[in-house]
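Researcher: Next entry in the queue.
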Amino acid sequence: MEDLLQHRREKDRFFATSPHSPLPPDARQGFTGLRYYDPDPTMAVAAPVHAPSDPEPFTIHTSTGDAQVWRRWGVLTFAAGGDTTTLTLLQREGQESLFLPIRPGATSTSNRPRWTGPRGRCTSTSTSPTTRPAPTTTGSPARSRRPRTG
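Model: Structure for this entry, 150 residues:
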């Protein structure tokens, strides 16, 4: 769990000090960190990674007007909190790291809007579509991503 806590500290430091922070400069001065749930070890899962059915690159337009090229890197399916959940790992063109997009309140395969976690980093050591190890997502239930500014 220490790596998750360290990741959170680094993210908060980035938000507070980086010129690339999503916070406007005036909001950075009073920024004390994002609000997180405490880590929940029961929500740490290991899931096999399967090749995506549609690995073709696609473009995402960001809020700043940039166009980024991404591709679906892998698909994870696992049971957590009594539901079976499928998540898609994305990889930005030209980068090695993976992105695991999770929306608070996303619908599970049981069609009940109850997915609330885990939210966290996904680690893997391979970029081969056929030899992908099971990444581990370590996190805590999702919480508002709105930063505290006061």
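Model: The radius of gyration is 16 Å.
Researcher: Noted, moving on.
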